[in-house]
């Protein structure tokens, strides 16, 4: 069953520059999370994402920088769709 979750309760965004959030709990495929406020966004979680892993807050194109903590942590190896897990399989780390 698909469930709606508040982004702030299930993932953390450390800077307004960030294009990834860190999952605070396991996120299950099919659920969706949304942020509140002026720039409200809804993210459908298309795959299971384990706690501690990153999820894309927006589409990230191949070779574009990935921001966490307000800093570039690497470049996308491939196009990464909004809601997908961001990890070593699709990120070249620059840290």
Automatic annotation (TrEMBL):
Which controlled-vocabulary keywords does the entry list? Lyase
Q: Specify the SAF domain's residue ranges.
A: 18-92
Q: Which SMART domains match?
A: SAF
Q: Which GO terms describe its biological process?
A: D-galacturonate catabolic process
Write out the GO MF terms: lyase activity
Q: What is this protein called?
A: SAF domain-containing protein
